[in-house]
Fold each of these.
Amino acid sequence: MKMTLVLDNIRSTYNVGAILRTADGFGVSQVILSGYTPRVHDKNLLPHLREKLDHEIHKTALGAEDMVDIYSSDDIKSELIKLREQGWQIVGLENNIQNVKLIQSTDPKLTEVLSDKVVLVLGEEVSGIDYSLHDIIDLFIEIPMRGQKESFNVSVAAGIAMYQLMAK
């Protein structure tokens, strides 16, 4: 399976770094940063701000920020539409959303509906994937929770989802 990740409105530089490191570990094709997700090596920032963000992301990415194909998108909705037209399936990682059928990431039937080219969309740490993107997403998956908490940290959830999808 080929996988592309979208990090949309991820707030934490540490989450971004951890996701990049995990993405490298799973051989993700590319990572697209959008919304207010902190950018690595962002030439649009003043040098001291770029250095600060790069340093924070590097703390958890440990060099993966230079190994993974990363680019930024100012219009992620159009980007996702383009990817879909190129044969990519758009999969959102969510939990507890209303009016949307969520497929458990552990469901054996997931294999039947997954494409061999998947774009995994990750949204903001608290509120999830921006609602403006919901109509573009072909399939929503969720990681089953057994404890009292309702969700995992986004970087942990990203790792679990990458592992489970790549194993399908």
Amino acid sequence: MAVQKSRRTPATRGARRSHDKLKNAALSVDPTSGETHLRHRVTPDGFYRGEQVVKQPEVADDDE
């Protein structure tokens, strides 16, 4: 069984835990659609920095 040789100091313990805190997601609002999205990513509508970069597929209406 593994047994530690010496006790960890509070400073070492704190240094290890310093990266455990969760950060808030960086959100941005698109100027055209006004939609909130993650930074540097295309919105679900296909807009990036105010320009439409991904075309949405056309929905065919079957009213026949």
Amino acid sequence: MWELIRVNKRNSVILLAAMGSVLLLLGFTLGYLFGGAPQAGWFGMLIAAGIWLFMMLISLSSGDQILLSSAKAVPVTADVHPMLFNVVEEMTLAANLPKTPKVYIINDPAPNAFAAGRSPDSASIAVTAGLLGKLNRDELQGVVAHEMSHIIHRDILFVTLAGVMLGSIVLISEIFLRSMFYSSLGSRRRYSSRSSNEGLAQIVMIVVAVLFAILAPIFAQLLYFALSRKREYLADAGGARLTRYPEGLASALEKIAGSTVTMETANKVTAPMYIANPFRGPKAMHLYGTHPPIEERIRILRNMSHGAGYINYEKSYEEVTKRSPVVPASALKEEEVAIRQGAAPSKPEQTTRQQARQVGDLMRTVSAFAFLACGGCGLKMKIPPNYKGAAVSCPRCGQKSTLPQ
């Protein structure tokens, strides 16, 4: 997939240049508005250039950590969820990555996942507690393999840069619009003392500036979204190839799509990073969505009946969508990959109530709760991290238990 990696690196440079241009134009417009002269506009552009350079350096040095923090992802160790770590290590070997990605869990009951980082050497994979509570091992493997494919294809560099740059443009626009709101009364007084022509010119400039401040983040976000759909198809293809079991990823996507839980930790900047659109309702409209229709992705994966390689995905993609090829020609020359059998279920399917309990316990573990079994009745007590006492009374039988130090 060297062709795809080269294209993603090129797109990252184009993205930086395009978002930098938007930021410079925004800086010039705001400078001209507040200064009332072209010289002030150039000064505003100079400030915007400094912001762009600073944000670019931040994106390249620690953009992944900013996005992980924005998603409220918490780094965890293998003892929190051994199966997750085992699957990540397994897919790292299958993908031939130089280093195992760091593992994060997002304290959110909605099922979803994403990858972040600048390169395979500094990659991270974050999954929600809701995802771990809903998926079996084959399904979890499919999701992790999908995120591994984003890492292999260097999608994570593009998304990390885009997320931080888009966030800066949105932030500057919101600051400007808020300042316009609070200073509107003073502006009206100032314009009333000028000639009618000067006042009209200033009003026109204000309208143009406000429109630009509103449209700049929308334009930047559309640029961000424009390249995301194809990447999701290719990550699905890579995930099926790594696991040799397309049904695992298809089943996982089906469970994610079937969830009615709203994802509270996602926002419009981080949304394109997730394996599936994290929003529900009007926000999830396909027209402005960051992902292809999930039902279509599932149909493509389940139509891969003759193999799990890129060439098999391409044939299935063309049959289902009736669109032009999505997989680069260089990847279609590989040998076909045989589909393996799914693993036998190791335990009965959990009920909705059992899944909710498991997700709740996992979220408490991530939040540093202590779990203590009552010595009298065996009740499992969940002790919050801010509990100050040395002992706790069982709410069922009243026996006191000493907290471990």
Amino acid sequence: MERSLTQLGNLIYDQINNQEFPWIHMQSRSTDNIVYDANIRQYVLGPRMIRRHSRNIRHIRPFTQLIWTAWFAKELVTQRKTSTLRETYYSARGQRDIEYSDQTESDNIITDLEVALNRAREEFNIFPAERSSIFGDLTIEYTVPGYEGRRTNLTDHPDGVMIGPAITSSEFLETTADKVLVIEKGAMFNRLVEERAHEKFNALLIQTAGQSPRSTRAIINRLHEDYDLPVYIFTDADPWGLHIAMVIISGSANAAHLRGLATPDAKWIGVLGSDIVNYKLPTEPLTEYDHKRLHELKADPRYDDPFWQEELDILLEIEQKAELEAFSRYGLTYIVDEYLPAKLQQ
């Protein structure tokens, strides 16, 4: 990573030394250059390229921001330090008076740097705030400074281990698990840990805390690819739960420039719209925004499969949605005792 950042710096230096206005050539991230590739089952960037040129007055601000971000990333890599997206934003404003209208602008520049280098931000030590976690029989070895060589088993922490830089960069040594169970919500994750679902199902448990962060999706992909573990996703029966599952399976348009984040063979096992009917679950009515989102998903090429279309149609037909916790009507342990065994057997 340090080499890529150094090469970028040398390119800019040589352009200035040659009395050129410095520029950077990279793939366009505009929506019309983001296309769905059915062969690999995820969004990718198309062939169109753009040149961000300091000679163009409209490009001077983002160009300057990009160069500063590259410098900051090189500082992180060479000093073996990490930063959150939020810290990067404030470092720019505080250390070098690099102006941003808000953090979204800063985050977009970091994504531009990813595209320019064809590397993920995690490789230059910039991470989102930690919020997802993992639990189960997986022994890891840390590689972060000060902890190199230390080993731990992820069952050692009853609340689960937060998926941050230390977990993301660690070596996965061994596991007895034969599957990965991904859970949308923290409360249900805690329930499964409490009921020792990792032992009952011989599974690694990962909670996404809503839409899963990229580092979490990368770990899911890594466990599937390196250990050949099947992945099962467990979310609310609403348009947002469906999309949480689909982003794990097929990736997102925002990360179309990256690979290794999607797990196309992962399976969404519930809560399905058909489960609402079959299990007579307590529900809430769909909102107008839910309706709009469901119709958007029906038009999304990632949902072309008849299975997804049918589940979307069921939600629209019954005009109801349900949460994971709805199964509590049958008792606190019903999820572990009845529902998940039936789903996994299918």
